[in-house]
Amino acid sequence: MKPKKRLVEPFYFSGNRVGCLLIHGFSGSPSEMRFLGERLASLGWTVLGIKLSGHGTTPEEMSKTRWEDWVRDAESGVRELRKSCTKVIGIGLSMGGLLALHLATLGLIDGIVSMNSPMLLADRRTRYVRLIRPFRKFVGKPQSQKAPTIPLESESFQAKPERFVYERIPVDGLISLNKAIRQVRHQLYKIQCPALLMQSRVDTTVDPISVQIISKSIRSLKYEVLYWEHSGHILTLGTEREEVVLKVHEFLQGLDLLGTLIP
Fold it and tell me: What's the rounded Cα separation, in Å, for the pair 29 and 237?
């Protein structure tokens, strides 16, 4: 089944001179970040939600891409925002957070919001995926991680936003992700920009200890670790998504008040 076009398209909303680069997760799509992006835009921030190479199409297309391709996509997003924004903040979910952390290690962004970024994956089998590479090109997601392209659930006031994600994962892509996690982890000490580090306690994809590894490794003088009690891995679309928006907004405002964003 082809995804709805709106779910997989990148998006841009013009606002003030602070640019928010929104980066979705591994095997996901911009649909994971659109709700957050629309809310931040309504609060006045400039927002760019990118689509990583090989995502939002088919698992076969994703199998042709690697971490290096996704890094180039993220760096291109920073350059695009720099055209109109004085400062750029990387806001990423899961592997998107890993990419934002990577950008920060290179000094390419002025702040970071990391959401359920992996330093350790919860499923130990992922560490040995290289062993099955000679026999399989794709692996299926555990049932708890699958997400259909229909509203995830109904709530009393509104349905949850839709999401498009692959249910099969390219083995080569997962191998590349594992390698990237190790590389970024070893470079975290280079991060000095302000950081908001979020982690869902009931995350079944990323081991929640990841956020502690990040917070103890970075050298930011201003950072906050924030846990979410009732949201799963896709924090941006979970039951606490409205509160997530407010915390990101407050983080951006706090940087502004400190004079780090507006010259």
Answer: 13
Please return the burial class of 27, using the count of CB atoms within 10 Å of its CB with bins 0-12, 13-18 and 19+. Answer: buried
- Sequence-distant (6+) residues with CB within 8 A of 254 are none
> Sheet of 11-13: strands edge to edge?
11-13, 46-49, 18-23, 87-93, 111-115, 195-200, 223-228
If one looks up domain 8-153+160-257 in CATH, what number appears? 3.40.50.1820
Q: What is the pLDDT of residues 74-92, one digit of tens each?
A: 999 999 999 999 999 999 9
Q: How far apart are CA 21 and CA 46, in angstroms?
A: 9
Q: Is 225 exposed, middle or buried (0-12, 13-18, 19+ CB in 10 A)?
A: middle
Residue 8 neighbours by CB under 8 Å, 6+ apart: 29, 30, 31, 51, 55, 56, 57, 164
Closest CA to 237 of 25, 2, 12, 20: 25
Name the residue ranges covered by the structural domains of the chain: 8-153+160-257
Q: Which helix (H) or strand (E) element contains residue 98?
A: helix 95-105
Question: How confident is the model over 17-59, as pLDDT tens digits?
Answer: 999 999 999 999 999 999 999 999 999 999 999 999 999 999 9
212 class by beta-carbon count within 10 Å (0-12 exposed, 13-18 middle, 19+ buried)? middle
Instruction: Quote the pTM value.
Output: 0.91
